[in-house]
Amino acid sequence: MPDPQTILGDIRLVHVHDRFVVVDKPSGVLSVPGIGPEKADCVVSRVHAAFYAGDPSKPAMPSNHLIVHRLDMDTSGLMVVALDADAQRELSQQFHDRIPEKSYVALVDGIVEVDEGFIDLPMRLDVENRPYQIVDHLQGRPAQTQYRVLAREIDRTRIEFRPVTGRTHQLRVHAACGLGHPILGDVLYGKSAAPRLMLHARTLSFLLPGTKTRVEFASPVPF
User: Fold this and answer.
1) What value, to the nearest 5°, has the Cα angle with vertex 157 and ends 144 and 184?
2) Residue 50: phi, psi to the nearest 5?
3) Residue ranges per domain, the chain?
4) Separation between Cα atoms, residue 91 and residue 157, nearest integer Å
5) Whole-angstrom Cα distance, residue 219 to residue 143?
6) Do domains 4-97 and 103-200 have the same CATH topology?
7) What is the secondary structure of 139-187 as a DSSP string?
8) CATH 3.40.630.30 fits 103-200, yes or no
9) What b/e sequence results for 54-81 when a residue is b if at least 16 CB atoms lie within 10 Å of its CB, and e otherwise?
10) Going by C-beta distance under 8 Å and a sequence separation of 6 or more, which residues neighbour residue 37?
11) What CATH topology corresponds to 4-97?
């Protein structure tokens, strides 16, 4: 069987467990398959190829049955991918129940004056302008994020975000609309004054499937 890291390519293998893997996704790589064959390459399809293809001891399982959660294509950082159906169900339930703990680091435009705080802005999809998400206090779903300033760097601020909920584009919208300081490189909600979206999933912790043991993983911030 080929070396899994060879198949994963620029997706770094952080941890291998019998029932899941943790990977470090680079910016620009899809988490899950998109619509059309040109968007088939993604984290879960590569994990499937690395740990299932050519291994007769593994039961047949579609790659989409490994999905636990996802990151935006332009966000880098840690993801957990299940390796069996029971692990997928249990880990997905953990995310539904908000058991995992996640932290992100971002560079935002301008200087954030308040050292820390809590953003509570409900959100929903702008159905006439997909995939754009908007703040809607009447019809939006609850969305909460804790934030803490890590450093102020001349004309930008390095921030740690800890999302309480997990809405699509939540940190990007909360940075732009809640802080008033969009994430650098965000072409949807701010300025594109960076070579990439400056948002990285730095830490991830969850319970080992079938146990009450919490495990935590970390990834160095690439910017």
Assistant:
1) 80
2) -75, -35
3) 4-97, 103-200
4) 33
5) 25
6) yes
7) TPBP-EEEEEEEEEETTEEEEEEEESS--TTHHHHIIIIIIS-PBTT-T
8) no
9) eeeeeeebebeebbbbbbbbbbbbbbbb
10) none
11) Pseudouridine synthase (3.30.2350)
**Distance, CA of 64 to CA of 203 (rounded, Å):** 24
Beta partners for residue 76, in sequence order: 200
Considering the entire predicted model, what is its pTM?
0.93
Reported as a single tens digit per residue, the pLDDT across 31-58 is 998 888 888 899 999 998 998 876 666 6
Both tokens assigned to 10: 């620029």
| Coil vs helix vs strand at 63 | helix
Which helix (H) or strand (E) segment holds residue 123: the answer is: strand 123-125
**Catalytic residue of the set 72, 74, 109, 186:** 72
Residue matched to tokens 């703040």 = 135
Among this protein's residues, is 84 annotated catalytic?
no
Structure tokens at 99: 């058991």
Cα 187 from Cα 184, distance rounded (Å): 9
pLDDT in tens, 137-182: 999 999 999 999 999 999 999 999 999 999 999 999 999 999 999 9
